[in-house]
Each structure stands twice: as C-alpha cells, then as structure tokens.
Amino acid sequence: MQYDVAVIGAGVVGAMITRELSKLDMNLVLLEKAGDVAMGSSKANSAIVHAGFDAETGSLKAKLNVQGASLMAYYCNKLSVPYKNIGSLVVAYSWDDMQTLETLFERGFENGVPNMEIISQERLRAMEPYISEEAIGALWAPTAGIVSPYELTIAAAENAIMNGARVKRNSGVFDIEYKNDMFYLSTATGVIKAKYVINCAGIFADKIANMIGDTSFKLIPRKGEYYLLDKTERKMVNHVLFQCPSAMGKGILVSPTAHGNVLMGPTALDLDFDSKLDVDTTIEGLNEVKFSVNGVIPQLTTRNVITSFAGLRAHRVGDDNDFIIAPSKENEHFINVAGIESPGLTAAPAIARYVGKMFREMDPSYEKKAEFISKRPAPIRMAELSPEERAEVVKKDPRYGRIICRCEGITEGEIIDAIKAPCGARDVDAVKRRTRSGMGRCQGGFCGSKVVEILARELDIPMNKVTKHGNGSKILYNKTK
Amino acid sequence: MLKYDLVVIGGGPAGMAAALKARECGVQKIIILERAATLGGILEQCIHTGFGLHYFGEELSGPEYAYRFIKELEKTDIEVKVDTMVTDILPGNVIVATNNKDGVMQIHTTAIILAMGCRERPRGALDMPGSRASGIMTAGTAQKYVNIDGYMPGKKIVILGSGDIGLIMARRMTLEGAKVEMVCELMPYSGGLTRNIVQCLDDMGIPLKLSCTVIKTHGIERLEGVTIANVDERRRPIPGTEQYVECDTLLLSVGLIPENELTRMAGIIIDPVTNGAIVDEYRQTSRPGIFACGNVLQVHDLVDYVTEESQIAGEGAAKYILSKGKSKSRNGKDIHVKAENGVRYVVPQNINRSTDKDVKIYFRVADVYKDKRVVVTCGDEVLYNKKKKKLAPGEMENVTIKLDDIAKLSSNEITVKLEA
Amino acid sequence: MIKEMICVSCPIGCMMTVELNDKNEVLSVKGNTCKRGEQYAIDECTNPVRMLTTTIKVSGGTLPVVPVKTSKPIPKGKMFDCMQVINNEVVDAPVKMGDVLICNVCDTGVDIIATNEV
Predict the structure, then answer these.
(1) Domain tally for chain B?
(2) Quick one: B11 and B115 in the same domain?
(3) Tens-digit pLDDT profile for residues A430-470
(4) What ipTM was reported for this prediction?
(5) Are residues B245 and B172 in the same domain?
(6) What is the CATH number that goes with domain A382-465?
(7) Which residues of A, range 294-353, sit inside 8 Å of B by Cβ?
(8) What pLDDT, in 10s, does the model give residues A278-296?
(9) Nearest C-alpha of chain B: how many angstroms from A79?
(10) Residues with Cβ < 8 Å from B40, sequence gap 6 or more?
C-alpha cells in the first residue's frame, strides 16, 4: 500500500498529528510497534497539563506548552477525554524557594502564561488543607490541569481512523530506504511506501532518524517512577502540587488524576542509551517518591496504594533540550518530532497544529476534507450515570447490565465497545486503558479472567492466545486436560 | 417497586446460610443477590477437600459444601438472582442492583445481610518493584484458571505468601504438571494450616522459605524470574542474600481484604483491624437493620465458622424483621468487647446486655504464642481463663461468654487478652 | 530408623519423633501430646494416604472440566499415577454430583467421583 504520509509512533504526539493530518485529503498511516497505541511515555507519565512557566522563554517548548494548555480543553471536549482544569501550585518551603517562585512567575509571564499569582501561606492552606505546615507560599497557575494521557492518545487515533487514516499496530519500523522520492519502510507487518514520514517514535526517535542517516540528535531514557493511590485519598489533594524545580526536572509532584485517584511521582533517573525498554520500578525510586511526598502532604501515605509504575522520558543528550520539530537535514520529506519530554503531553495539541501547518507549507497540494469529523463520540460509562440513566441503557442492550469489574463498575457492554471501537482493544491492558476495568483496588483480581474470556470470545481466539499487553505477554499456557 | 423483607447481598456460603436461617426463623420474602453466574461463591473453585469437618462432621470439597446449601435453598421459596451486582445502598434500605435481564432494579427491604466475601491483596498493594510482565497473579485467580477454565497459568512457579490458598495452589499446580520452585513467606512462620504445609508442600517436595520475600520481578513481556531475599526481624531485605530464581509465574497469596465498598457507601462504621463492620452479637452493624457475616465481616480460615456466623446473622435479621424493626439497634451502647495484649481483634465488638443467649467471641492473636492463657475480664472479674498450648495468627480462636455472666456484668467493657 | 514429623491432627502441630525398625514397624512415638498424634504418626509411617482432588475433562458441558475427588484416601505414592489416568479420561455432559467417573483407579479400590455438576 502506498501512502502520502506515514507517521511513526502512536504515542500522544503521533496520534494527535495523525488526527490533524486526517483533515487533509490523503492516504495516511500511523505505524506503531507495540500491540496498542499509547504504549510508551504516553501511558506512564504525570498526566498533567502544565501551565507553561518551566520552559525557557523563547523556546519552541515554551510556545507549544502555553498554546497546548489553552487548547487542551477544546481537544478533550472534541475527543471526549477526561480533563479537569484544576490549576497547579508550586509550593515553597523557604525564602530561597520564594525567590524561585518569583523567577518562575517572571518566566511564565514572558512565556504568556495567564493569571498566575504568588499566594500566601493562608491562601495556600485554604486551597490545600492537608499541605505541610512547612509550606510558606506557592505559585498559583489556574490554567494547569489534569488529563488522561492514554485516553487522549486512543481517542485521537480513533478519530483519525474515523477520518480515513489507518492505524497499524504491531508494525515496528526496522529499516527505511529512500528511492525515487519514496520512503520504503520495512515493518514487522510488511513494507510501507510513503511520500512523507513523520518521526514521532518517542524514546526511539533517534534510532528511526538514524535509518535515514540523520544522527543530529541522541535520546536517552530518563526514568520516572510513580505511585497511584486509591480514590479514598482524593480528598487529600485538590490541585497539582509541584515542588520547586531542580536541574533534573520539575521534582516530585502530587496530583489528583482525571479519574479521581491520586498520583505521586516522578523520580528522574537517567538510564543508559540501551535501556529504552526498562520500565521496572525500583526500591530506591519508590522510596524517593514516598519520602519526597511526605514533605508536601505528611498525612498522605502509601497505605492505600493501588499500584506503582515507571515511565521513560525521551531526554536529549547535550545542552539543548528544546523540542525538535523540523524536517531532517538528511531528507526534507522526513519530519522529526523528537525529544518531546515534559511538557510533551500538554503541548501535543499545539504540536499537532504546528506540524500540520509545517506540512501544508511544505506540500500545499493536499486539499482540506469538507467532511472532516471533529467529534469522537464519548464511550458509554455506566458508573458515571444515574440509576435512571443506567436503566435506560440496559433496556436497549442488556450487556450493559452485567458488571465485570466490581471496583470501577465496568460492564460487559463497555468492554465489548472497547474491543469493537475503531482502534479497538486487543489485550487485557488495552481493555483496562479504555474502560478502567482492572484499574481499581483489586487490580483485576476478579475481572481479569473474565476480561480474558470476553476478549477470547469477541476476537474469536482461544483464551490462551489472549495477552496482557501484546506480543509475548501471554497469560495462559496449555489446557490442563 | 420490588419489596422484600430481607435482601442478602452475596450467594456464597455466608449469604446462603444466613438466608436459610432467616427463613427457618420465619422471615417471608427473602432474595439473594449474587454477582457471579452461580451460587457458592469462592467455594466453586476450591475443589480440594477439608471443608465441613466441624459443621457436617465429614470432609467435603468446596463445591460439595456449597451444593448442600444450594439444594436446601431450592427446597425453599427464597428467590435468587445470579449475575446481579449491587451498586448502591441508598438511605431507607433501598438497594440498587443491576443485571442483564432485569436491568437496573431498586429494591426496598426491611433488612439487609451483607455477605460479599473478600478479595485477595493484589501485587500493586505490595510495593514489589520490578517489571509489568504477565504471569504475576493472585493464587485465587490462578485457581480459577486451573479449576474452572481448565487452563494452566504457568509452568515454573514461585509462590509468595504461605496463606492457605497459596499452599493449596502449590499442590494443585504440581499435580497438573507444573514445577513449583518454592513458597516464600515474609514472616518467620506460615500463615497457613499445618496440615496444608505437610500435605501441599512436604508431600510435593516444595521448599517453604520463611523470612524470605520477592524483592524484584524480571521480564518485559512474560515473567522470566524473580529476585528473592531473606528479611530481618523488621521484615527488611538483608543485603547479600539476594538470589535469582527463574520462573514464568509468580502467584501471590499475601492476604485477604473484606470487600466492604458497599458497607462504606452505606455509612457503616468499619473496624480498622478487621476491615469489616463493627457488629453486635447478632452481627448487626452500626446501621439498624443491616447485618454482616462471613468474610466480609472478618476473614475466616474455615468455612464451617462462616456458616456458624452467618446463621447468627440470619437469626438476628429475622428478629429485627419480625419485630418490625422495633428491636432497636443497640450497637455500641451496651457492652464493648476490647482486644488487648496479644489479641489483635475480636468479633463481635459489642454485646447487648439484654441478649438472649451465650455469646461466642471470635478472635485472632498477633503473633505465634506457646503456653499462654486466654483470659476474659470485666473489671476485676475473670469471666474466662484457659491455657492454650499454641496460638497462631493463622488460626481463629473463640471463647464463649455465658448468658448469665453477661446479664450481671459489673461494667460496660470486657477485655479479651493473653496472659502468661 | 528415626523419622521427624509434624502432627496435623490439630492446630498445635506437635513435633514428633518416630522410631522404626527395619521392617518399617513403629517402635515408639515421642513428642505427641495426645493419642490422635500417636495414631497419625503410625499411619504416616506405615501407610500414608491422601485424598486426591483434581478435574476431569468434560465434553459438551457448560464448563470444560468438572472437579473430582477420590471416594476415599489413596496411598500417597499413587497420586501421580492416578493423575495420569484421570488426565486421559473424557466424560460426557451432563455430569451429576457424586457420579462415579472412574472405577477402581490404579487398582486402589477407590473410585473417582464428581464433586460438582457440569
């Protein structure tokens, strides 16, 4: 199959760019090496919409961050993705910290972050009753928020498919050849031909660029470890709570999630170049998170932890840590979108528009589609409905009456929807990201085996072919008898 | 509008015994709401024997034990709805439940018995670092795959936690051809029954490693191995004792948690130690007309005791219903039962002074003890004093307080404790 | 010969020392604190038996397997032989509680019976 554009990497950036390009009349494909979209940094990050005072003034990062923060509500509404504009606080514990807040405020102002304030201890305490007594003030940024990053990715991919794009999973690119004005991408599922390539391969973007001889940047994985706490802890935290930044990043934060849990993390540990798959959690990392958060909200403990996880940021080697969003010097039909570490999630909507504009300027021959569908319909979420509304839904389809995941109240109907959706779930974790089945406090103890059963039935495969997260992550072996 | 005298939430051993007892005591309209497709609860997958020695005087398998109650239920007009999940308990004892036949139901009832059972502690709650590979699951999940679905969840297995389910699964997986490398137990003693250690581990040649835990899991897709280490007396891994064990499966048997989401939703007061409701001698919770029994109230080791406890709850609910709710909730007002000095918790936590029969107090101890006296006191008065050769956290104990003694107690507090 | 064992007759779990002669006959039992302990020690040393529980494949049933048990305890050493026989068996649904699915398994004189309905 020949495509006009192949986007490599179905993280939030790749998916949002694909959606943006699906506005144009062209053959478009999104290639992903994993068994699902959002399998890299997009599924394991802080899930924060940053206001935009961190990035260096004048950088692309700063510009796209502030733009992204202001676009997020619009996109999440269009794509039916959980987003809450709860605002963020950078908490100060010393006069040095207060000085840092001033610096952040100044930088934020220069970057165009609206409505920031430096607030007093009293006001901070009123906003966050459980905050440490040591906290003396904070930088309040009301435009910050929280979003479900993997749902944003999934929704963008689905919406792109609704608009004619193809999403090919399990299609990792291992070689690229360029001849006769055409890229030949060797993937795990065959050769893909494309006139243009957009490299959104996250932590592997440097390896993809290397395939066309572009060695202009190098990425190392910077690991961040997190704890996810039970919804019972939600009352302890009202806003995104940052500590004053350090050289390694924005420090360990505490925040509610878009689904009402509490997230704490991340650590920041630079791994070596060859550890791009290492998302193991470590005792040291998790202890650091615990210790650090104890200084912010002393009463918040990990007693009600649901899970811990680690994610990797695509960190640029060298002094320049700005986003790379430009055609490669080796081939101008190959656009690198690389080094997108924090605030990449926030910036994703702005990056998509930026790349879209760049592409149209590069090749104005593609017309805008008249019939672009901008709205991705909201999936049915039974747990969010009133008993009366639930009764209505079940009347139409009884499968919405059979609850599979007890903790989150997810029904068989919702799980089937997730499997049948345009970019449908193919494994247990994919069902979990789409429906929250198994996301609760029992962590799939009860529903896990039922989800395996439903996947097997709907995909018409035996139960022992169902995986946890694609490839070799099998759950069951042979039949006992 | 659906209207019942008694709604029993959960159709496992607790719910079935409670419903049958309430029926026997004269309650008319009873319904059991069960979230699984069949009655029997977790017993359906517990195909090993050892159930019923106390209650039936014979050794039954889990499904056989459940079957006896299912057959009893079939003889009555007690209604049963399976595949039905209760989602809310609203004020005024209105239950919201859903299934794929009736849709969303609102059920009005005079009394409720909570019998939702418990769940296993998952990996996430363990603080165990490492990868997110497949092949890490609770022992109960593995049990369902093997005994109900007929699939092997692994070939080379390490089990963390020596709770009874873990021990039972060690034998079960071995019989089905898997190699169980070891069972690691964080504590210096096993949480399981001695009989299970002998018959599930020793018989199968599986080593039990005490004061040992899994400190890391390895593998990106399927589990490839675990790192184990010995722990010191404060349960911290001892550096230098790490050992890599190759395996494709890690089964977790690290504790059970009563499933009290609905209980909390109903505003019922929970005991922070048992993680179940605080109840009186008839297992009435802090909300009048709502009773609790079985593993949702306290995690039991023997189903026989679940049955016994549930019959008490069924009788209590019947008394409440037949007195038209006039048997006031006296929970917490009369005699408070306290756990002290080596006794970790007691159930019931409250006793009504005007109760009408002897009260059996169940308890668990905090550690392994040898040659200790179990003593129950009320002020200076000693109500019970008996020597026990051995007490262990894994074995639920009980003492009976005589009706005559309760009536004439000198204070409003009795204490259950261990003494030398 | 001296054998060490834990008694499983009750939760106390006495550590017992059993003395045996060449013919595997019990000469003495020490460490037990009750009669049941002594009997258990003798049984375990001379003829240890176990209940075997597992599943048998079902064809045409609501579930792929049905749980089964031995009608009586079988010699401990025969458990895996019996498993092999059981694993090769397929029974047709419907299976009723208590149905005898295999007679006299491995010449033990013990039957394999269904412990649920499928």
Answers:
(1) 3
(2) yes
(3) 999 999 999 888 888 888 999 999 999 999 999 999 999 99
(4) 0.92
(5) yes
(6) 1.10.10
(7) 302, 305-309
(8) 999 999 999 999 999 988 9
(9) 29
(10) B11, B12, B13, B62, B63, B66, B67, B70
